[in-house]
Design a protein that fits this description.
This protein is mainly β. It has three domains: about 200 residues, no CATH class; about 80 residues, no CATH class; about 140 residues. Helix content is about 10%, strand content about 50%. The strands form three sheets. Strands 3-6-8-10-12-14-16-18-21-24-27-31-33-35 form a 14-stranded parallel beta sheet. Strands 17-19-22-25-28-26-23-20 form an eight-stranded parallel barrel. The protein has a two-stranded antiparallel sheet with strand order 29-30.
Length: about 425
């Protein structure tokens, strides 16, 4: 048993050993024992040189604090908390620019008014950090950074702001990131290059937004999205010339918005599941879209919708159980499995389209569009039951325009159930006809 008089020495010894272990992997100076007061911590940070390791004990420290570049701030876990209730400050924890990244690990950062963590022009590494933001506080903001590394980081609201905001970040590598409860985006990436492996976002108006730049997402789950202030909720949304690659992406449960919304750029989605949304995939004006080995189950209104793409590929995919959705602008119910409009090159292969409430697959052939909308189809199974009105359709101005879809264009289709055909040479009977725009 340690005598009371030895407790201070024992604590100092433990701190020194801990500091020594840190120094073995990170050259520099180190505080002798963990800090538990804001003034002392701020003073140590002001004097710290790059490579210094500063420890925080199992306590709550009142911020805000500024962490210099190259300094490592280490706690013992969630018990090491830095919080701030000061209004006129950029963030509870701010990182200053410099040659080396600041490192924060085993900490909790809590904000109620200003942002929780902000790095502008600074590089930063976050490991085992919990971020809590409330009221209108953003979670983590990184702007004009060369590099960001995040591992095992949790960012949680409730907040009317965004959870994770990256702007002009040259390289962001993220692993095991959880973002929960923000009325705007859970995560927003602008003009950045992001590689995110494993994570979960839930309870936001938009799950992940990518504006320009590049994003690679692997094994990210997006769920329970929408219902907040956004007029355009979505599980995953891209705009501008964004380049998206998503593998093993799961988007499920989006209220009043699609699972994935693509506007421009290039997108590749593989081995993914998009379900329970108002539209599985909604894409407009894109250069290239490739969807492979993915499923679209139980979406409302449309399973896959592509308009104005240069190239669209759908391969080894299931589009099942698309239910009706009343569209006010069209004054009608829609419930279509796959819709492709104004697209120069379309290839659909090894696909199943089943149980759509209106039309299984719908293609547009309008002479005024100036594009060839005739798809290449191979081993596509379409099953019609219940309300479904036809396996295929084309927006046509008149029966004569059916010549743009020559006999045999849909030879790669296998039909079953109550499905109308459109290869009989009698388009007036078998086509779902509407006026061209």
């Amino acid at each position: 048993m340690t005598a009371k008089g030895d407790e201070g020495a024992t604590r100092a010894t433990r701190a020194g050993l801990s500091c020594l272990l840190l120094l073995l992997s990170n050259a520099g100076g180190c505080a002798e024992e963990p800090f538990c007061d804001g003034a002392g911590l701020r003073s140590a940070l002001e004097r710290a040189e790059p490579g210094t390791v500063i420890e925080i004990g199992a306590c709550t420290i009142n911020g805000p604090i500024i962490v210099p570049a190259g300094v490592r701030l280490v706690g013992v876990g969630a018990a090491s908390t830095i919080e701030s209730h000061v209004e006129l400050t950029p963030a509870t924890v701010a990182i200053t620019p410099g040659e080396f990244p600041a490192v924060l690990s085993r900490l909790r950062i809590r904000a109620s008014i200003a942002g929780a963590l902000e790095a502008r022009g600074a590089d930063v590494q976050l490991m085992n950090v919990d971020v809590e933001a409330s009221s209108n506080s953003p979670g983590v903001t990184v702007v004009s950074s060369r590099s960001l590394e995040m591992q095992s980081v949790s960012i949680e609201g409730p907040s009317t702001s965004a959870g994770l905001l990256l702007e002009r970040v040259s390289s962001a590598r993220m692993f095991d990131i959880q973002i929960i409860g923000f009325e705007r985006e859970c995560a927003r990436f602008e003009d950045s290059s992001v590689n995110w492996t494993t994570g979960r976002v839930t309870g936001c108006d938009v799950g992940v937004a990518v504006e320009r730049g590049r994003a690679e997402l692997r094994s990210v789950v997006v769920e329970n999205i929408g219902g907040g202030r956004s007029l355009m909720p979505a599980g995953l949304a891209t705009t501008g010339a964004a380049r998206l690659f998503a593998e093993e992406l799961v988007v499920e449960g989006v209220e009043s918005g699609p699972a994935v919304r693509i506007e421009g750029g290039t997108s590749e989605v593989v081995d993914s599941r998009l379900a329970g949304a108002s539209g599985g995939l909604m894409a407009r004006g894109s250069e290239q879209i490739s969807i492979r080995r993915s499923s679209f189950h139980g979406n409302r209104g449309v399973g896959v919708f592509v308009d104005g793409a240069r190239s669209f590929e759908l391969a080894n995919a299931d589009v099942v159980g698309t239910t009706s959705l009343y569209v006010v602008r069209a004054l009608t119910d829609v419930g279509d499995g796959v819709v492709v409009l104004n697209t120069r090159s379309t290839s659909i292969s090894d696909a199943l389209v089943e149980d759509s409430s209106r039309i299984g697959m719908l293609f547009q052939a309008c002479p005024a569009s100036g594009v060839s909308a005739i798809p290449l189809l191979d081993r596509v199974e379409v099953s019609g039951v219940g309300e479904q009105r036809g396996a295929f359709g084309a927006f046509v101005r008149s029966v004569e325009d059916f010549e743009r879809f020559p006999i045999g264009w849909d030879a790669g289709i296998q039909r079953s159930g109550a499905v109308l055909t459109n290869d009989t040479g009698n388009p007036a009977v078998s086509l779902y006809a509407m006026e061209c725009p």
